């Protein structure tokens, strides 16, 4: 009996530890009205994106749900209008797997929406499912599509500055290794998919870094955000049916709810005072240092050039576009330099002896500002 009680106590203690360190997310704590502001959230019909869009709508923003399925997108817009009491939540079609769809979305958006204050690249896939493409579908949806969309929407972001771009990445970026000779090779089998997912999330971190450099001084800042381990359809939707009843309850117990996962993207989109940290990676509403591969500035610039080519935006050095060759977008490109800017990436930070910026002081100041005065419901 005593052994049983001890075992139960240990199990409970272990769960409490897991819960407070992994499952429970710190609230973003950002307050303030977003009335008069416009936000785009990609992949907002489910999971983290839907909860992110809900919080933006609750704060009064006009929120555009950029989703690939009209049916799921319209249904989510309806839910979010009901739940937030904000009628300014609309659906617009965007399939990030298709460069033509990204361009069509941008044309429709720029033609109908006068503002863009917050762009959240949330949509993502972890597997190709049954699709067999001649290109790397994970890189296309998770990085190249968002890269192109950012370029096309930049005129609005710049004219509404201060404005923000948030790229929802993942801690999986730590396992990423970009092979520039094979960036766009098709992905076959689950092992390659896991690798391609990590690579695409590393691309997210490098993209935010390079974008921050390219946009320095423009008033547009950008951040990579890790939502934490979240109980969503991202991986579960690819499980065989017979495994779901076993794994879903476990996922519910040990993974964060999507609302918890939305906190760090929201923090990056809304928190005042983090502008000097533009280009950085955030997790649990804190800036975090990343491994060397994710702060490799020459690699970030090389990825930028390769991505331009893969997105049909102009000559790059590494890969050929495999689909939908597009004319050069001189308007978007003219606003971003292709040469390396000389200024340091993060201004106002001293460097620690190891050569890394000493973020501790600035982070402390921001944490004081971020003290939650309002808990998310
Ligand atoms: N869940 C986690 O533990 C975790 C951890 C780290 C990072 N993340 C990141 O968080 C983000 C959101 O994931 P989630 O967990 O909320 O997963 P999710 O529930 O599966 O949501 C993914 C969203 O992306 C959309 N999407 C997929 N392919 C698309 C395409 N081609 N064009 C436009 N939209 C597309 C999906 O739309 P459909 O419903 O039409 O498929 C869905 O709305 C992803 O970027 C993911 O990498 C998640």
Key descriptive features of the protein:
binds NADP nicotinamide-adenine-dinucleotide phosphate; globular; disordered C terminus; 45% helix; 13 helices; 377 residues; alpha/beta; eight-stranded mixed sheet; 10% strand
Question: Could you characterize the architecture of this molecule?
Answer:
Strands 3-2-1-4-5-6-7-8 form an eight-stranded mixed beta sheet, sandwiched between helices. Strand 1, helix 2 and strand 2 form a beta-alpha-beta unit. The chain contains 13 helices and eight strands. The chain starts with a helix and ends in an 8-residue tail after the last helix. The chain is of the alpha/beta class and 377 residues long. Helices cover 45% and strands 10% of the residues. The structure holds NADP nicotinamide-adenine-dinucleotide phosphate. Belongs to the short-chain dehydrogenases/reductases (SDR) family. GO terms for molecular function: oxidoreductase activity. This is Dehydrogenase/reductase SDR family member 13. One of its GO terms (cellular component) is extracellular region. Keywords: NAD, NADP, Oxidoreductase, Secreted, Signal.
Topology:
Elements: H1 2-23, E1 38-42, H2 47-58, E2 62-67, H3 70-84, E3 89-93, H4 99-112, E4 118-121, H5 137-159, E5 163-168, H6 189-214, E6 220-226, H7 233-236, H8 244-254, H9 258-261, H10 263-270, E7 281-283, E8 286-288, H11 297-310, H12 330-334, H13 360-369
Helix pairs in contact: 2-3, 4-5, 5-6, 6-11
């Amino acid at each position: 009996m005593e052994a049983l009680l001890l075992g139960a106590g240990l199990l409970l203690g272990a769960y409490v530890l897991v819960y407070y360190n992994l499952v429970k997310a710190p609230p973003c704590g950002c307050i303030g009205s977003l009335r008069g502001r416009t936000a785009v959230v990609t992949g907002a019909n489910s999971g983290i994106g839907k909860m992110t869009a809900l919080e933006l709508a609750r704060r009064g923003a006009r929120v555009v749900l950029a989703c690939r399925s009209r049916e799921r997108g319209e249904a989510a817009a309806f839910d979010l209008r009901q739940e937030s009491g904000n009628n300014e939540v609309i659906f617009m079609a965007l399939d990030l797997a298709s460069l033509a769809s990204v361009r069509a979305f941008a044309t429709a958006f720029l033609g109908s929406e006068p503002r863009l204050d917050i762009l959240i690249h949330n949509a993502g896939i972890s597997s190709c499912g049954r699709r067999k493409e001649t290109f790397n579908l994970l890189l296309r949806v998770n990085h190249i599509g968002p890269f192109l969309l950012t370029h096309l929407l930049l005129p609005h972001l710049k004219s509404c500055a201060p404005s923000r771009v948030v790229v929802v990445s993942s801690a999986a970026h730590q396992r990423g290794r970009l092979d520039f000779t094979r960036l766009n090779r098709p992905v076959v089998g689950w092992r390659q998919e896991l690798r391609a997912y990590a690579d695409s999330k590393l691309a997210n971190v490098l993209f935010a870094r390079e974008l921050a450099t390219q946009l320095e001084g423009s008033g547009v800042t950008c951040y990579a955000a890790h939502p934490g381990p979240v109980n969503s359809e991202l991986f579960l939707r690819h499980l065989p049916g017979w495994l779901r009843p076993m794994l879903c309850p476990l996922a519910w117990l040990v993974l964060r709810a999507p609302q918890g996962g939305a906190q760090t993207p929201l923090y990056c989109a809304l928190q005042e005072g983090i502008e000097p940290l533009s280009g950085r990676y955030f997790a649990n509403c804190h800036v975090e240092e990343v491994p060397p591969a994710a702060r490799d500035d020459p690699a970030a610039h090389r990825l930028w050039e390769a991505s331009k080519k893969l997105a049909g935006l102009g000559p790059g050095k590494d890969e050929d576009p495999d689909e939908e060759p597009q004319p050069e977008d001189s308007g978007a490109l003219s606003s971003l330099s292709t040469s390396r800017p000389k200024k340091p990436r993060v201004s106002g930070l001293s460097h620690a002896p190891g050569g890394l910026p000493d973020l501790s002081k600035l982070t402390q100041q921001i944490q004081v500002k971020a003290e939650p005065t309002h808990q998310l419901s």
